[in-house]
Write a structure and sequence with these properties.
binds S-adenosylmethionine, 323 residues, 13 helices, 8 strands, Rossmann fold, alpha/beta, 8-stranded mixed β-sheet
């Protein structure tokens, strides 16, 4: 979605850009090639991505890369003694290198240690979770974040398997799931949804997203752009609800006379939507990168209303792993 991200970001000379999901710097390269005269702050919670980015920053003027979760972007910006930034971009989920490297433990296609942490320097791994979590909680994680209808059967199979020996590898977990979930007609591996659910839980991805959106609201200057690319409906629902709450006017308390001012009217409007419907990747990108087929981009412009005045988020709060 680089084209669409660049069009929405409208980076101008002197702008400060926060890329909360630096990855391998695809967006950084594209944006800095178009506008070399900006300060590009890349954040990633994955130490490998940060190491890669810090090397890249030696060749790419304007780029600096920090090890941080994007939910901590406000703290980082204050530490850097910046008042505000002009663009915040989030490209959610895991990167191709994370999936491709078996030792990161994200992939059911390649056997490796059952880790799944983006930030390998802290927190519980997927192995810690599947070997310790109570059966009902496991079923809930797999159902809620993986949308696996056979979540109870999967949780039961995990409990039985771990009683034999701790589950340490992605291959063993995938086999356990495949023993109770059959391959659907669409050919998707039966382990897909369970792996997604555990990954979202291990990295507290939905909680991170909720806190990250609020942090972006706090640091964006008036006129600043927020751009979020999501890859599944759980993420998109959160972004949509956040922007709906921030970009819509609160319900009117009654008709006002023309000379009366409704102080509440503009209070919640910390953002204006750039696109009412989410943008999707174009056909050529989907052909080159099948993952782009499920990408959705939502973008909004920050108004000059102070953060904190917004109506509350109608979605329930997510409390995943406390990383
Ligand atoms: C889909 S990739 C981003 C790819 C990037 N746009 C590029 O062009 O290379 C997502 C990256 O964001 C990182 N990430 C995911 N959630 C994060 C979070 N809450 N805080 C910081 N980094 C995060 C992952 O570690 C991964 O490297």
């Amino acid at each position: 979605m680089l084209r669409e991200v660049m069009a929405a970001a409208q980076v101008a000379a002197g702008d400060r850009v926060v890329d909360g999901t630096f990855g391998r710097g695809g967006y950084a390269r594209g944006i800095l090639a178009q506008q070399p005269d900006c300060r590009y702050l890349g954040l990633d919670r994955d130490p490998v991505a940060v190491h890669y980015g810090q090397n890249l920053s030696e060749q790419l003027a304007g780029l600096e890369v920090h090890h941080a979760a994007f939910s901590d972007m406000e703290t980082l910006i204050r530490q850097l003694e910046l008042d505000s930034v002009d663009v915040v971009v989030l490209d959610l989920g895991v990167s191709s290198p994370q999936i491709d490297q078996a030792d990161r433990g994200f992939s059911f296609g390649k056997d490796g240690p059952l880790d799944m942490r983006m930030d390998t320097s802290r927190g519980l791994s997927a192995a810690d979770v599947v070997n310790a979590m109570a059966e009902e909680d496991l079923a809930n994680v797999i159902f809620k974040y993986g949308e696996e209808r056979r979540s109870r059967a999967v949780a039961r199979a995990i409990i039985e398997a771990r009683a034999q020996a701790p589950i340490e590898t992605t291959g063993r977990l995938a086999e356990i799931v495949r023993s109770v979930v059959w391959r659907a007609k669409d050919g998707i591996d039966p382990a897909t949804r369970t792996f997604q659910g555990l990954r979202i839980h291990v990295n507290d991805e939905l909680g991170e997203l909720e806190r990250g959106l609020e942090a972006a609201e706090a640091i964006l200057a008036p006129g600043g752009r927020l751009i979020v690319v999501t890859f599944h409906s759980l993420e998109d629902r959160i972004v949509k609800a956040f922007l709906k709450a921030r970009a819509s006017k609160p319900a009117s308390k009654g008709r006002l006379m023309p000379w009366e001012e409704d102080a509440e009217e503009d209070k919640a409007q910390t953002f204006m939507l750039l696109n009412k419907k989410p943008l999707e990747a174009q056909k050529d990108e989907c052909r080159a990168n099948p993952r782009a087929r499920s990408a959705k981009l939502r973008a909004a412009t920050r108004t000059d209303v102070a953060a904190g005045g917004a109506a509350s988020d109608p979605e329930p709060e997510h409390t995943g792993a406390n990383l």
